[in-house]
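ok so I'm stuck.
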Amino acid sequence: MDKINYESFYKFLVSLGIILVALPFTIILFLFTDSFNLQISEADLIGYTKTAQTVIRLKQSVPLLIEQWYTWLIFIILFIVGIKLICIGLTKWHELQKIDDICKQLEKEKLEKEISEKTADLSVKEIIQKNTDATFSEQMTQNGNSISKQSFAAIEGFLIEQRFFSFIQSTRQSSLVKHNIRIGSCNYDVVAFSTQLFEKDYVYEVKYMRKGITANRIEQFREQMTKLKQTFSENLNRIPYMVLAIIVPDDTYEQTLSIVQKVEKWNNYSIEVMKESELPENNNL
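replied:
not stuck anymore, here's the structure
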């Protein structure tokens, strides 16, 4: 099933709101400009058929509706509902436009990055393959060209982040999911932008912990996420739900889960622990 085009939906809300606001004024104008057969007297009505007499009397009574209190109540309700629809439609439309502008900028930066990466001697896949080849690694070390453990860990973490991004894309299909983006002065691992009314945006801070994690480390991560949340809200005028996604090898999952369960909970923050094996394979490499 195709996704709803929410940009068109919010445009529809604005259009509907304008119609509801204009409707009372249109009706009032209609009541004061149409003759409604008011010039036909009772004496003249005798010459018409009974059906015609009924229709003419009904038309002649229509202008009198303007004197009824419930007519004005209906006009006021239509006007208020119309104004609200216009405000909701314009607000959400503007928010989506902001996200769209960010996405276009990211696509541009991504394209520039891909062009620059094509000039590199080795792809990420080749680096990983060579680092997993013990014989080749030893030879590279002897030549002074080996990749440091820190660099390899960074690449490994990046690939885990890519797999988590694919996982969120598949589980939040109604959201606009973006990966490795910059908002304001902060970088964000994965963001699921809401495209529906009354739903929150989700910001995921992804951490790959090969040797598990401590409660103090979790608190440090959440302090960093506080800044991410503040920057997100200041730039997009939206309050996100923050998720610390901890990815661990299968053999440290139970230990990590036990530590996380002892951590004090925060409002609008949550911690999700996932096994590395639960993430989809990265087929982009």
